[in-house]
Amino acid sequence: MAGKELKFLYGYVMTSPFHVFAMEEIRKLDLDVIHAQTEFGVGIFARLCAKQLHVPLVSTYHTTYEDYTHYVNFINSKTVDEYAKKGVARVSKLYGDSSMEVIAPSMKTKNMLEGYKIRKNIDVIPTGLELDRFSPAHADAAKRHAIRSEFGVDDQERLIVYVGRLAKEKSMDIVINGFKKAIDQGSIIKLLIVGGGPDEDNCREMVKKLGIEKYVFVAGPRPAADVPDIYRAADGFVSASLSETQGMTFIEALAAGLPILVRKDEVLEGLCIEGVTGSYFQNENDLAEKLKVFLNMDQKRLDEMHAKALEVVNPYSSEVFYEKVIKVYERVIESYLHQYRIEDVRVTDNIVQLYLISNQKEEMRLHVSMDDSIISACVLMVS
Fold this sequence. Notes:
Number of domains: 3
Distance between the termini: 40 Å
Helix content: 40-55%
Oligomer: single chain
Strand order of the largest sheet: 9-8-7-10-11-12
Strand content: 15-25%
CATH class of the largest domain: Alpha Beta
Order of helices and strands: EEHEHEHEHEHEHEHEHEHEEHHHEEEH
CATH superfamily of the largest domain: Glycogen Phosphorylase B
CATH topology of the largest domain: Rossmann fold
Number of helices: 13
Radius of gyration: 26 Å
Shape: elongated
CATH architecture of the largest domain: 3-Layer(aba) Sandwich
């Protein structure tokens, strides 16, 4: 579908919610369920398709939009930010209630959506990954050496990697300042930052201003096919982000056997186990201390953390994801088929006749006494 690239939103593509020809192609598919993965543009189109074609709709809520209101708050106003967050809550409720069920990738996201008063069932299903892509079993010593050599990292040095979008909400300033403090304290440890975004140049300028270009490397975006080898070329992973709804890069890093250094966040429960699969830090000073501890770990301890990292990500496989999502689809389809809508209402002296039809085109008639005040009120609203 044609769309418009929004450069100020890191190249996200916005498209119209109206696609007549696409609607006809989708009609031919005779779908059992439609699953919307986004809220705007294509997400609205998915909802229109579901309504027009009489197909049940499932939606997944991937993004904590509250953490992104600064992109539209051009004047940095507290009032604007508050109204933007309220708008996010209203729109999220509207989208959630237009679905038969909602999938949240984490309990953090579910709790947030429940706070928006969404009335539909919310299933927590972490997005699945093809874990084997990142497995250390596919490690290539030559590729590892080549990646490290590109940035002047010896095979004996400890290299920490960050993979992800570079934007304000990712808090890369905490990471870079933490490495600066660690280096000033004598910890010879290196950082490779992989990814693009609106803060990519800011990260480069910050590294240069702090004079740590020999230790911190901003590589920019790399092809997705190269990312597993980049993880496998590192010894650990770091992120200061608190804006994740699930944190896919955390899972990717663990799937590659890397211990993770992260800030405390609900999405990391069960993933980052202190001293077992990684460590938590609160600020740049705390990160510097954790980097020192990590640098002084012997190989036996690192191997133990490596094994535990691979163990904790097993529930996040694409196979587990598939099984859980299929159950949602089956439940939604079954429920949808047995839903009835009121086609006609006829009122006599003391009886209300309701003419109902199901999504399977089954008809039903209900005769309700006017003495039932609740039914009467509902009938009046429908009429």
